[in-house]
Write a structure and sequence with these properties.
The complex is a heterodimer. By secondary structure, chain A is mainly alpha-helical. Chain A has helices at about 1-25, 35-45, 60-75, 80-90, 105-135, 140-155. The termini of chain A are far apart. Chain B has one domain (about 35-175): Glutaredoxin. The longest helix of chain B is centred in the N-terminal third of the chain and has 18 residues, at about 5-20. The chains are: A mainly alpha, B alpha/beta.
Chain lengths: ~160, ~180
């Protein structure tokens, strides 16, 4: 019985929280669920230019709110994701996108990690090869083996 | 000795990269609008809301378009420089008051002097978005054909004016 009550309380808490989330952003055009989904999807892919390591979705900067509103209006007009992203890229540059496109200026960004991996892998290969060479045993000549047994004998005697 | 050479080289290369990185300003995002026509708009003027300001009126002239706001701290730094520039008469300076109220903006201009021939009021920031504004102040150099030739992000300084903006303006005016 007691457990039951706890669950109810938790459910109520969750419910209250979702209400408060709605209350924060309520604006006239948010009634359209389809548009909201698109705005949410896009704002997770776009960078807030004021707080540069946040997406538009995460950011509460004023510019981010404005841009979200702009996106919302474009989405309401039925523009596609690509058209909206293009619109923003034309004004803010590729930097506004969290997933930069592959082109001549971003080649290093895309291929750099693989190049580093390749260099690292090559270095590891060389190092391992060198170590292998060191580990191969070199046979002793007669003089050396005589010395070894002599030393071992001395060790035993002492 | 030789075995220390490679780590040393790697270390020096890293130092180089980090040093260059220290001198980069991550806030300076290159604008894709440079080389493109300045977006058109028509906005009410700060001094007289019944009159409109549009970049179309400026065709045939080289001009500076300075985005500012009374709430912006860095604008305070560049303001005297703009006042000085407008007194020199080298290039006409127009302003856009970004997301601001008329009273605050007018008070600001009364206090610091008004370097602008006209100021457009972008109260809701929509024209700002069209211009790719993300940090006020920003200043655009616009040529006779209405093409954006340069964008300065952050305050105009004596240095940037002398080394970058004024030589560019002179070159564009001669075209």
């Amino acid at each position: 019985m007691k457990l039951h009550l706890t669950f109810r309380l938790i459910a109520l808490l969750f419910l209250m929280q979702s209400f408060s989330l709605w209350a924060q952003d309520a604006r006239p055009m948010e009634n359209d669920a389809v548009v909201e989904v698109q705005v949410q999807r896009l704002s997770e892919q776009l960078r807030c230019l004021v707080c540069q390591n946040q997406t538009l979705a995460d950011s509460h900067a004023e510019l981010a709110q404005d841009l979200k509103q702009e996106i919302r209006e474009m989405a309401a007009k039925g523009m596609s994701d690509q058209a909206i992203i293009d619109y923003l890229v034309a004004r803010y540059g590729d930097f506004v996108r969290y997933r930069p496109p592959l082109k001549s200026t971003t080649v290093l960004l895309w291929l750099g990690p693989f190049a580093l991996l390749l260099v690292g892998g090559f270095g590891l290969f060389i190092a391992l090869r060198r170590r292998e060479k060191l580990a191969t045993d070199t046979p002793l000549n007669e003089e050396e083996s005589r010395k070894v047994s002599e030393l071992l004998k001395m060790d035993k005697e002492s | 000795m030789k075995r220390f050479l490679l780590p040393l080289v790697i270390f020096l290369v890293m130092v180089c990269f980090l040093f260059i990185g220290l001198n980069l300003d991550p806030r300076e995002v290159p604008s894709p609008l440079v080389g493109k026509p300045a977006p058109m708009f028509s906005l009410p003027r700060l001094d007289d809301p019944k009159q409109a300001f549009s970049p179309k009126d400026m065709l045939g002239k080289v001009w500076l378009f300075n985005v500012w706001a009374s709430w912006c701290g860095a604008c305070r730094d560049e303001h005297p420089i703009l006042v000085e520039l407008s007194k020199s008469g080298l290039v006409p300076v127009y302003g856009m008051d970004y997301k601001d109220t008329r009273e605050d903006a007018q008070q600001w201009l009364q206090q610091g002097g008004n370097p602008y021939i006209a100021t457009a009021m972008d109260a809701d920031g929509r024209v700002g978005i069209n211009y790719g504004v993300y940090g006020v102040p920003e200043t655009y150099v616009i040529d006779k054909a209405g093409i954006i030739a340069y964008k300065q992000i952050g305050p105009v300084t004596d240095e940037s004016l002398r080394n970058k903006i004024l030589p560019l303006v002179k070159r564009l005016q001669a075209q």
